[in-house]
Each structure stands twice: as structure tokens, then as C-alpha cells.
Amino acid sequence: xxxxxxxxxxxxxxxxxxxxxxxxxxxxxxxxxxxxxxxxxxxxxxxxxxxxxxxxxxxxxxxxxxxxxxxxxxxxxxxxxxxxxxxxxxxx
Amino acid sequence: xxxxxxxxxxxxxxxxxxxxxxxxxxxxxxxxxxxxxxxxxxxxxxxxxxxxxxxxxxxxxxxxxxxxxxxxxxxxxxxxxxxxxxxxxxxxxxxxxxxxxxxxxxxxxxxxxxxxxxxxxxxxxxxxxxxxxxxxxxxxxxxxxxxxxxxxxxxxxxxxxxxxxxxxxxxxxxxxxxxxxxxxxxxxxxxxxxxxxxxxxxxxxxxxxxxxxxxxxxxxxxxxxxxxxxxxxxxxxxxxxxxxxxxxxxxxxxxxxxxxxxxxxxxxxxxxxxxxxxxxxxxxxxxxxxxxxxxxxxxxxxxxxxxxxx
Lengths: 92, 310
Ligand SMILES: [Zn+2]
Hints:
With 92 residues, chain A is mainly α. Chain A is 95% helix and 0% strand. The model of chain A has no long low-confidence stretch (mean pLDDT 92). Chain B has a domain at 106-297: TIM Barrel (Alpha-Beta Barrel).
């Protein structure tokens, strides 16, 4: 009887051990996946904030650069005139 | 004694069983804990995954926007170099266009509108307005005039060619000798170079190239000298007649002086002056009629076939 109890306990222990190892392994895998995801989210958000800042800085720069910028206007004019002429030539 | 030993053995057997049972319970509890934790972690992973995908999509859009803005910002760097580059391409195309028009294999003709003796503070802006309205390029054969920087700059900004028409345009003085002429011509080149940073290489003789001989100078030697300095020169095919003469002419007469004859050509240059209000009055109609006749309007360059090199 005592031996039987011992054997039953050992079998139970092995079973619970296996279940515990399996769920534990799953837990750690999920835990790692989630931390990686959280890290990626944080990094992406930071990169996005950075891009936002860069865009707004560049836009500010562009705005001040294009104000009364004769050279820029001239460059745009030449681009337009060249496009026009190339269209005429392409038609021939 | 044997009884005691038996008792101890039974006790230790029970302790082991209890220990095993406790371990079983702990393992069971841990399993339940892991299982439940996995459940909530799973939900977290799913929502984090969705959040990340969303963020990445937005980030992609942001990156594209950033690339675009960076490119726009980039366009402001080395504008002088970029303008020089595109002008080179443009004028190669312009030469090709004139050659095509001359060959008769084109569905267009080429017109070089030219305005001499400017700029003029009162009228030049109005001429520039008309050209801007029609998005037409021309050539301004300028003199060296102080205090009109903005007008030279606007001519350049609107992609017109700035030609050299000598600094002073004083016929008696500039044609007094070839050396005097060259000195005056170079003075204007330097004036424009300092003001706009461009080297003029297309010139028009005040009064036209026949004026060299009228003034008693040697035409061949004069042309040699301007060639050495890398100038091409141009007279004109047609003119409104605004350069002064014995008769007063109306804008309508100016117009007909050009459009009544222009249909016979494939390539023309039209001589005008940006001081003439009558030319200004007929310019829009002139552009429209020339367009109807199939003309496109180009600014002059040294390489344009119409610009003479000898
Ligand atoms: Zn003149």
C-alpha cells in the first residue's frame, strides 16, 4: 500500500513536472516575444518622433530658404523651360 | 530496539511521501500559474503585434515624407551649380531646336526676341511682365547702368539671356577705335559679371555690325578681337522700328513690321528696345501672332547657329 502510494506520487510528480516544464517553457517564450515586441514598439516610436522632428526642422528650413530666394525661383524657372523645350523636341 | 528502527523507517517513508506530495502540489500550482500567465501574455503579444504593425505602417509613410522633404531641402544646396547644369542641358536643346527649324524637319519655327539698350526703370518691368505672362524667354542686350540691379536680376531670374551691348553705347566714343570698343565691351562684361555672376558671350554692336565699317574701322580685325574674347554677335532679321527714325510709327505699324514678314522665315531674331511704349503696346499681339505662325521663343546663347562667330 505504501509502495503503491509512493509510485502514484512519483508518477504524479513526473506528470506535473512535465506539464510545469511545458507551460513554463511557453511562458518564457511568450515573455521574450512580448519584450522584443515592446522594445520594437519603443524603438519605432522613437524613430518616428525623430523623423517628425527632422521633417518639421526641414520644412522650417525650406520655408525660410524659399522666401525671396531668386536663385531657387530661377532654378525652378529653368526646370520648367527645359521641360517645355524637351516636350517640343520629343514631338518631332 | 528493532521496533524503534521499524518506527523510524516508517516515519522517514512518510516524510518522503509528504515531500513528494508537496512537490506535486507546488508543480501543480506553478503549472496553473504559467498557464494563466501565458493566457494574458498571449493577449499582450497579439495587441503589441497589432500596435507594432500599425506603427511600422505609419513609420513607412513618415520615412517616405522625410525622403521627399530631404530632397526638396537638397535642391537648395549649390543652386548656382544646379542652374549652370540645367542651363547647359537647356541650351544644347535650344541649339538642337534651331537646327531642326532650319532643316525644315520641325513643326515649329524659332524666334529670338531681343531688347536693346536697357534696362529702363520705368518700362523694363512692364516688358518683363508681358514676357512672364506669356511664359516666353528673350534676350536683353544690356548696357552698364548703375542703380538698376533689380532689373538685371529679374531678367536673369526669368531665364532671359543677358547680352552685351557695350557699357556706354555712345556711338562716337565706342567706335573711335577698336581698342576703345573692346575696352567698353569688356567694361560691360565685368559689370554684369560682378552683378550677376555670369559671363556674357553674346553681343550686339551698337547700331548693328555695319556700324563698324560706317565708323571707318576694320570689320575683320574687330570681329577677330571679339572672337579672341569669346563673343559671338548677332544683328537682326526683323525689327519693329522702335530704334528711332524719321517717321513716327504707331504700335500697329510696329506690329506689322514684324508679323507681315515673319511667316517667310524658319528662324528669326527681332530687334526691339525695352524703352519703347509702342513696342510694349504691340508685344502681346506680336507674341500671339508669331505663336500662330508656329514660332517658339528662345533666349540666345553663344552656340546658337544664328549667333555669328566670324
Ligand atoms: Zn542699341
